[in-house]
Design goal:
The protein is mainly α and 240 residues long. It contains nine helices and no strands. 65% of the residues lie in helices and 0% in strands. The chain is globular, with a radius of gyration of 17 Å.
Length: 240
């Protein structure tokens, strides 16, 4: 497949993930205020992130592999499924797609007269954080461990679901449901990253602590992706 098409697919898929997942958190999670039956809440946001990956993988996975996440690209490399030489281009396309989605989401959210971003508020504009910027007040060490473990298992699911011996055609469902579960677990801890591009795409529009803490949401997911990739490569005998 032509590299430009592959990178375009990664751009679009990451855009869809950030716009759909973060958009659900910004626009729909608390719609109408507390107790409004139209607000989708934590469960709805978790499902929205899973649906973006599920639909994006079915639509674009056959073009680029459907990474939509730098940690996934690193994990697939560690798992022997992706070439190291393509990592910089893929990550660049993913981050660009995430920032583009953040920009569009910001323009839409700004259409509400009382829209304002409080950069000191946990989860502001769907950003990730720890300590005072964690939705549940979790410390940096807990946030780091959570992101590493969940990203590692995300890669195990991805590599297992896409293995040549796995049932064909069902991988996006397993991957999407895994991301939903990951959000159900970790939204209270970090507002859930497991994806450095997703974290960057909204943090650049918030600044302040969201940008200062962004390092964790690059380092921990990539470390987790590498762990998951290497572990599954050993477990599933990939590359033999």
């Amino acid at each position: 497949m032509d590299m430009l098409k592959r990178l375009s697919a990664e751009f679009l898929g990451t855009f869809w993930l950030v716009f759909g997942g973060c958009g659900s958190a910004v626009l729909a999670a608390n719609f109408g205020g507390d107790g409004n039956p139209l607000g989708i809440g934590l469960l709805g946001v978790s499902l929205a992130f899973g649906l973006t990956v599920l639909t994006g993988a079915y639509a674009l996975g056959h073009i680029s592999g459907g990474h939509f996440n730098p940690a996934v690209s690193f994990g697939l490399w560690a798992g022997g499924r992706f070439a190291a030489k393509d990592l910089p281009a893929y990550i660049g396309a993913q981050v660009a797609g995430a920032i583009a989605a953040g920009f569009v989401l910001f323009q839409i959210a700004s259409g509400q007269p009382d829209f304002v971003i409080d950069s000191a508020s946990p989860g502001a504009f769907a950003t990730n954080g720890y300590d005072a910027l964690s939705p549940g007040g979790y410390a940096a060490a807990a946030a780091f461990l959570c992101e590493v473990v969940l990203t590692a298992f995300f890669l195990i699911v991805i590599l297992g679901a896409t293995h040549k011996r796995a049932p064909a055609g069902f991988a996006p469902i397993a991957i999407g449901l895994a991301l939903t579960l990951i959000h159900l677990i970790s939204i209270p801890v970090t507002n859930t990253s497991v994806n450095p591009a997703r974290s960057t795409g909204v943090a650049v529009f918030v600044g302040g602590g969201a940008l200062q803490q962004l390092w964790l949401f690059w380092l921990a997911p990539i470390l987790g992706g590498l762990i998951g990739g290497y572990l599954y490569r050993w477990l599933g005998n990939d590359g033999d």
